[in-house]
Amino acid sequence: MIEMNNVTKTYKNGVNALNNIDILIEKGEFVYVVGPSGAGKSTFIKMIYREEKPSDGSITIHGTDLTTLKEKDVPHLRRKIGVVFQDFKLLPRLSVFENVAFALEVIEESRDVIRKRVMEVLDIVKLKNKARFLPDELSGGEQQRVSIARAIVNYPRVVIADEPTGNLDPDTSWEIMEILENINRNGTTILMATHNREIVNAIKKRVIAIEAGRIVRDETRGTYGYEK
């Protein structure tokens, strides 16, 4: 599903964020990306949805070579990738329904398809009863669930979750993890960058650890492995 070969990223200011990364993530895997702040996790994640491009090497997602992908084709790629951010990134003046529907409106889906899909994913994240609420009428955990619903409304093959529990209390974090696990059980590949050692150590999945721009561990059922 995701393959990186000899990927290096050096920013214009000379910062070398990634060094000769080789990785293969299979369809349906659930993978944590861990490491200290500044290790290169965010750059690693951004490469996958083409927010950043490598300085060297190649990245392939489901057969699409991101390094040769034309800019006009990037929006089409992103329809196959759902992204969940730490800070939700919801549109404050739109309702829950409208925030999720927006991802379908930009690709000009029909009104009937939009309503059907939006209500399906709101049911998955247990927010059907709050479809008409505005984001500021929701708790932080509910806002993150809206963000997840928006990420999966196009039925993506991959969901990228960048610190999805970073702004949430422990109980709410476990609720978000339950939703992500359910999505993964239905066949979607999940790649989650996190600093949450409790979750990583309790819900055993593949762990890719990055330090100083290099992969230092890749364990099938790994642990967080860093002191607080």
TrEMBL record:
Cell cycle among keywords: yes
Domain of life: Bacteria
Domain ABC transporter span(s) in chain numbering: 2-228
UniProt-listed PROSITE patterns: ABC_TRANSPORTER_1, ABC_TRANSPORTER_2
GO molecular function annotations of the record: ATP binding; ATP hydrolysis activity; transmembrane transporter activity
Gene Ontology biological process terms, A to Z: cell division
Alphabetized UniProt keyword annotations: ATP-binding, Cell cycle, Cell division, Cell membrane, Membrane, Nucleotide-binding, Transport
Family annotation (SUPFAM superfamilies): P-loop containing nucleoside triphosphate hydrolases (SSF52540)
Gene Ontology cellular component terms for the protein in this record: plasma membrane
Membrane topology: Peripheral membrane protein
NCBIfam families according to UniProt: FtsE (TIGR02673)
Assembly and binders: Homodimer. Forms a membrane-associated complex with FtsX.
Family statement: Belongs to the ABC transporter superfamily.
Function summary: Part of the ABC transporter FtsEX involved in cellular division.
The protein's name: Cell division ATP-binding protein FtsE
Protein's organism: Salibacterium salarium
